[in-house]
Amino acid sequence: MEIEQTLKETLLRLKVMNNEELKFEVSQSETRLISSLLKHIGTTDPELRDQLIYSMFIRLIAENMLNPLTLQSILETCLDNNHLFYRVGEIASDSVFTRSFSSLVIAAILENDKNKRYLSKSTLNGVFEKIQDYLNSEQDTRGYVEGKGWAHSIAHGADMLTSVVRHPIFTIEESKVALNSVEKCLFKKGIYTDDEDERLIFVIDALLDKKLAETDLKIWILHIFGKLEIIFQNEEYSLLFFQRKTNITNFMKTLYFRLGFKNSGSHVRGCIEDNLKIWHDKVYTSATD
Questions:
Q1: How many secondary structure helices (H) and strands (E) does the chain include?
Q2: Helix 95-116 / helix 121-137 crossing angle, nearest 10 deg
Q3: What is the pLDDT of residues 67-100, one digit of tens each?
Q4: Name one Pfam family in it (predicted).
C-alpha cells in the first residue's frame, strides 16, 4: 500500500502538468514510470487505477509522448500472462481488474497505430489472435464492483476488439472471426447490466463500416437465435436460459435501434423484429396459458 500511495502522489503531481512539462518529466524517468504503471494497472484502488494510471496511459499515448518502441513494449507486456491473461478464468476475484484495464491500454495503442503504423502486420495479427483467445476465456462478467470500481471486462474487451476491426490491417474476410468473439460474449454466464451490449454493438458498427454484407449479418443473427433455441430445448425455463435470453435480446434490441439510427440494415432489422416477437410469444404466451 505504501508503494501505491507513492505512485498515487507522483501521478497526482504529473496530472496537473501541461503537455510540455509532462513530456519532459516522463523523459527523465520513462522506464521506471511505465514499469510502475504496468505493475499496478490492476490495483483495487479505483482512484489510482481509473483516474490516474489509466488516464496517464491514455494521455501519454494520445499526445504521442512515447516512442514506437516503448509503445510496442507496453503492448507486448499488456498481452502477456501477467496482464491480459492474468489468472484468466477466475470468477469474482480481483484479478479481473488487471485483465480489464490491460484491455483498455491495448485498445488505445491500436487506435494510435491506425495513423502512425509502427506495428508490423505479424504483430497485429498476433494481437488479434490473443484478443480472440482472451474474449473466449474471460469468465468474470461483473460490471461495477462495490468499493473497487469498474471491472467491466466484457465492455473493455469489446473496446479492444473494436479497435482491431477499425484498424486498416483488418479485412472484411476476417469478419466471421470477430463475430464469433462477440457471440462468445453473448453466451457467457451472468446478466449484463452496465451497457455491455452497447459496447459490443460498436464491434458490429466497425464491421459495417468495413462493408460487412447485410446478408452475412442476418445469417449470424439467425445463428445466435438458433443457439438460444437449443439452450431452451435443453434447459427450458432455467436460470441459465433466462440469463442467455436477457443478454441476447438486449443486444438485439440495441442493434435494432442502432441500425435504425444509421438508416441502414432494413432486412436485418426485420429479422431481429420477427425473432424477438417469436421469443416473446414462446416465453410469455406459453407461460400465461
A1: 15, 2
A2: 150
A3: 999 999 999 999 999 999 999 999 999 999 999 9
A4: DUF2785
